[in-house]
Amino acid sequence: MKEKLYLKSILSEFKEKYDYPLFKKVLNASRRDVVNEIKKSKLRGRGGAGFPTYKKLEYVFDKDNVHFIVNADEGEPGTFKDRFIIEKNPNHLLEGLLILAYAVEAKNLYIYIRGEYKEAIHKLEKAIQYLNTIKETFNYSFDISLVKGAGAYVCGDETSLINSIEGKRPNSRIKPPYPTEEGLYGYPTVVNNVETIANVPLIIRDGGETYAKIGTSESTGTKLVCLSGRIEKAGVYEIEFGSLTMRELIFDLGKGIKNGNKFAFVIPGGISTCVLTDTELDVSLDYESLKEIGTSFGSGAVIVGDEQVDIVSVARNVSDFFMNETCGMCYPCKEGNRQIHHLLSEIDKGIGTFEYLDLIREISNTTSITARCGLGQSAGNFITCASEKFREQFLRKMKVGDPID
Amino acid sequence: MIQLINLKINGEEISVKEGTTVLEAAKKLNYNIPSLCYQEDLSIYGSCRICSVQIKGQPTLSIACGTEVSEGMEVITNSERVMDTRKSIFELLIANHQFDCELNCLTCSKAFSCELKKVAEAIGVDSLRYKFIDQPFEIDDTSKGVYREESKCISCGRCVRVCNEVQTVSVLTMANRGPQTKVSTFYDRGLGNVDCTQCGQCIKVCPTGAIHEVYHLNQVIHELRNPKKHVVVQIAPAVRVSIGELFGEKPGMNYEGQMVTALKKIGFDKVFDTNFTADLTIMEEGSEFIKRLETGENLPLITSCSPGWINYAELRQQDLLKNISTCKSPQQMFGALSKTYYAEQEKLKRENIVSVSIMPCTAKKFESKRSEMKDDVDFVLTTRELAKLIKSYSIDFLNLEITPFDAPFGISTGAAAIFGTSGGVMEAALRTAYEILTDETLDTIDFEMVRGLTGTKEATIKILDQEINVAIVSGLENAKQLLKNKEKYHFIEIMACPGGCLNGGGQPLHTDQEVLKKRMEGLYSIDEKRSIRRSHKNPAIQNIYEAFLINPLSEKSHELLHTSYKQR
Known about the structure:
The complex is a heterodimer of chains A (about 400) and B (about 575). Chain A is α/β, with parallel strands linked by helices. Chain A has a four-stranded parallel sheet, with helices on both faces. In chain A, strands 6-5-8-7 form a four-stranded mixed sheet, with no helix packed on it. The model of chain A has no long low-confidence stretch (mean pLDDT about 95). In chain A, β5 and β6 (about 235-240) form a beta hairpin. Chain A is built from 18 helices and eight strands. Chain A is about 45% helix and about 10% strand. The longest helix of chain A has 19 residues, at about 330-350. Chain B has about 575 residues and is an alpha/beta fold. Chain B folds into three domains: about 5-95, Roll (Ubiquitin-like (UB roll)); about 135-215, Alpha-Beta Plaits, CATH 3.30.70.20; about 230-560, 3-Layer(aba) Sandwich (Fe-only Hydrogenase (Larger Subunit), Chain L, domain 3), CATH 3.40.950. Chain B contains 19 helices and 18 strands. Chain B has a five-stranded mixed sheet, with helices on both faces. In chain B, α8 (about 275-295) crosses α10 and α8 (about 275-295) packs across α15 (about 425-440). The model of chain B has no long low-confidence stretch (mean pLDDT about 95). The chains are: A alpha/beta (about 400), B alpha/beta (about 575).
């Protein structure tokens, strides 16, 4: 079992003085043609939700003064693919951005990047600097701004990110209106993840139909996965959708569990996704197969745990993260995550009771249907899932004397 | 053409205008969907999620306040899922607070007007299963008018929005994230150390007891118990038409006679009427206006009665300070007279007089503590504090006999009564200025064009051969906008609170436009019933000029009734 080196191979062709041939190529085609190629490719957003990319382009296609934002605020724990892309080949991201910008006639382009990504920022700055020197060679004017995030996870949510660029508190916005209707400074705005955009030059180079042949019918192309945790060979792997199972990813590509320990669980797509057990490892790695078993590819953060990892304290740690990273605006998310954290801390300390698990499930359920944004709606996924699939381990920590069944 | 949208709410069909929210549509069918962060006239915030409803076809619940109706929409407001979820959110919210006897519901500023209690009832809360998780809460006692207790704040953002959207003073903000999210001020300096005007509109919208006035109530009670002290009290125009609400009466009813009786029973030595010094203000300010009109200097003249506005001007509109009337507010004119003229008359020592005022205002508390005011007014009670005082002396307020105000500051005109509403000071001033300038008697003294609760009003009045352009503005955002074109006007009335003093930060809470309208009508009805309706015809005013002040703008007047402003 091997990696599919598709995106990675183009990423390795970094040139400091890059003249953006694929962008020049699309400038000779019509905007409609570009959108059609994207549509044919069946490219889906790589940020976590898997939304068809061409749809966002269609929404704004006939609108004036479209703004375009690259979401490079990669904050999901265990995710480092966007950083990988930018550090390897910032030109490639810029080329994808320019192609999409042309497709929707966007002139104001923003890259919102996680502030801690010093190296990526440095490389991107240099690449933008060079791009600006050759601007006249394109028959298309544009302006790229690099905006550095200040460390709030919630800025990864597109409407919070837009507020942040505007200099406002990064609360999510009430939708509708969606950003494609009323986004940055009130203009129609497309927000795409780095990896999504990084796939665009490939689609232009090879054609949408060719691209769509990679992967499965619903999940086309390749995906960068960030393998981490108790794994022998952690790192960013490129896989073709549907070409291998989770087991193969962990044991073939990742060379198995660290120190030959026994596998215990894997988080398939970052800490907002449902955890998988040993019996579920033969799931094929594509959007639809993962959805079928109640989880998702999320951001591509595959985090592996072995027997020595205490999943209760992992859950507590996850709840700590969400508690501290909620924007604090809507009650279910702000107060719910705090309560979950409190309840899990007590369980972890051995002073929890049996009914705590019911309360956690109830809070998680309430938050999932009432929170303002994706952060809140998905914050409880991993925790409730872990507490169900690894119930024994949670119960073992309960106060002595409590009924176990 | 207005598009009508057809939808179903709990199976009942209804057609509403396009753009209506689910919350508004449900109200038309008499479903009052509970909510906490929603507030009429403020932007939709969508933080509390209490108004969540089920919309057919949506995987998650939707907020009724922030969801516009659409054709064929089917809304369920009372399903098991909706009701259980609301309870769950509410329980989580309550767990944010130390909701026990230490943070007692009996002593809370909103003990009897707490929206949390109303919402709890509306959603049928029957258990509280989540524990309070301890965290540090701070108290902001830096301001002289407004007091904040973080421990009761549910961060619904209503105070932040009223400050940002209605007043555009924007001193309140949300700060931090996660569990540390809270309402704060610039660098957490506290309301007393930022550009807060102390208008108290934040108090009026707060659903809990997290923001309230700085209480002077216990200090007043303390003074009342001191036999050596002669305690006098004045009552502002707007208080009499709203105090009844705090005893379950409808807004707009005039309770001035009952208030006098109550305050006498409580032990105040003299009960006076701020309306008296409102008439005096008209004499001074009217004369000031005539003088400025003659010299053409420092026009437009801008009124100075609203201390929230004065604070705003000193903090944010400093180039206008020369335009503002040098007249003290009626409260402070009264204070000055109570400790000079009145003291002389009654042969009392200044230090033995305690001068108390009852105001619809929180900024008045700050005003009374200004160094320029020399402790002329010792304590300021809000309308709400007055109700507390009356209740704590177990007085059956509504059944009291009527008692007139005491002399010599008890006689007032209709012109003074309407100081309590936006446009009132202007109208009172015009009545007097017109008659003094023309030496004629006005046929009709009702200046309808300056009346009403509209934020910005304009009028042109012909006096002799001159067209006088006046503007009346209430709410600080409205003021800010109007002042951009101030050159157009000769005279501008500015009140910090939308609608004027009848909607002041010290007034009974939870008011809507209907309540304000009733209070306004109450004030105009007092004016109409008064036999004297022009300030310059007030015999008590004529007396005090003869006996003490000599003339408007005299040296004595300047010493006692006028003040100065400074950049802050």
